[in-house]
Amino acid sequence: MPHIKRIGILTAGGDCPGLNAVIRSVAKEAMIAGLEVIGIEDGFLGLIENRCRPLSRADVSGILTIGGTILGSSNKSNPTRHATGKNPDGSPIFSDVSGPCLQAIAGHRLDAIVVIGGDGSMTVAHQLWERAMKDGVDLHFIGVPKTIDNDLCGTDITFGFATAVSTATEAIDKVHSTAASHHRVMFVEVMGRNAGWIALHAGIASGSDIILLPELPFTIDNVCKAAMDRSRHGSRHSIVCVSEGAKPIGGEKIIARIDPTSPDPIRLGGIGKYLSDEVEKRSGLECRHVVLGHIQRGGTPVPADRVLATRFGHHAIRTLFEGKRHRLVVMHKGELADIPLTDCAGKQRLVDPSDRLLAAARGVGTSFAEA
Ligand code: F6P
């Protein structure tokens, strides 16, 4: 075991259910092994602003079931490109503040940092590590992959995804009865960025009639046709589960907002309303839409996420104790493993159009409104 006495832990990027379960797993196992654990607040922002605090056993007890993160998170804190002011036109001024981050790391005598985050956070960790190496600072980073979107390369599953799917499914189940009462076509927009995993799983689990994914080009006319066919055959309502990144052939993804201070500035949203209006116009069927939004990121993690988060945390500590540096904990074919930290950077794991789940959905008559 390398000489590791103190570790830092941070949660970066968008939150998701199960973050606290990983913090608990990492911190408890480290503490039992005699290490000191420092909690870094609000992701990398806590390093930039030197907001770090020692964690006690009491701090990490009773948090397994709690949503969010006791450490806070930020999705706009890349130390190598941090917004430190504004130009006269309002655009942000970026500066490299990795120097102060390394000073904070040295000040707290951290031998390693466990970064719980997505691909962007792993890239940031890598950039900090490169800078540390240049300055002759020996620092280990171990990554734990999180996102409700389940779109990280290198791992078959991320914690948070199962809870988001469960939340979306429960919501769509509720939409069913009101859709049936009013004979409406209901569009339920779910999250996922450019990946359709949440829409695919929640769509199948809720028995949605039409599922629209970013990975499968569809036409609005085919959405109308699928809903009208159902209507003609006696099912006077339809449920459409649409991923926020879905777009009809010839159309563009709908952007809800752009945050120039964020490393990933585009926020998708609005396709549900757009399709609801268009389908009502073209088909004459009455339509409504609902955007599930951040509800999918909240709440207590489902048992599968609690277990996965605990296993990821355990593997992160084992990886560290084995003297490995710069690894990302992953789940591959049901087994825990670790890969180079940056193997997931800049890539997204999207739904493969030949995925067998699609065939299973088609088997029960689900439409993807494909061209
Ligand atoms: O990546 C997680 C996610 O919830 C996406 O599904 C969604 O597009 C995005 O984050 C929303 O980000 P924000 O919390 O910044 O609005």
Can you offer a commentary on this structure?
The protein folds into two domains: 6-158 and 301-343, Rossmann fold (3-Layer(aba) Sandwich); 164-296, Phosphofructokinase domain (Rossmann fold). It starts with 5 loop residues before the first strand and ends in an 8-residue tail after the last helix. It is built from ten helices and 15 strands. The chain has helices at 19-32, 45-48, 98-107, 119-134, 161-182, 197-205, 220-232, 271-283, 303-321, 356-363, and strands at residues 6-11, 36-40, 52-54, 82-86, 92-95, 112-117, 140-145, 185-190, 210-212, 238-243, 255-258, 266-268, 287-291, 327-332, 335-340. With 371 residues, the chain is of the alpha/beta class. The protein binds 6-O-phosphono-beta-D-fructofuranose.
Q: Could you list some keywords that capture this structure?
A:
371 residues; alpha/beta; Rossmann fold; seven-stranded mixed sheet; four-stranded parallel sheet; 15 strands; 35% helix; binds 6-O-phosphono-beta-D-fructofuranose
Report the C-alpha radius of gyration, rounded. 22 Å
Task: Report how far the terminal alpha carbons are from each other.
Answer: 57 Å
Q: What is the quaternary state of this protein?
A: single chain
Number of helices: 10
- Record field, number of beta strands: 15
- What is the third-level CATH name, the topology of the largest domain? Rossmann fold
Class computed from helices, strands and strand pairing: alpha/beta
Strand order of the largest sheet: 3-2-1-6-7-14-15
Helix content: 25-40%
Average per-residue pLDDT, rounded, comes to 95
SSE succession: EHEHEEEHEHEHEHEHEEEHEHEEH
Q: Can you tell me the overall shape?
A: elongated
Strand content: 15-25%
Instruction: Tell me which CATH architecture of the largest domain applies here.
Output: 3-Layer(aba) Sandwich
What are the bound molecules? Answer: 6-O-phosphono-beta-D-fructofuranose
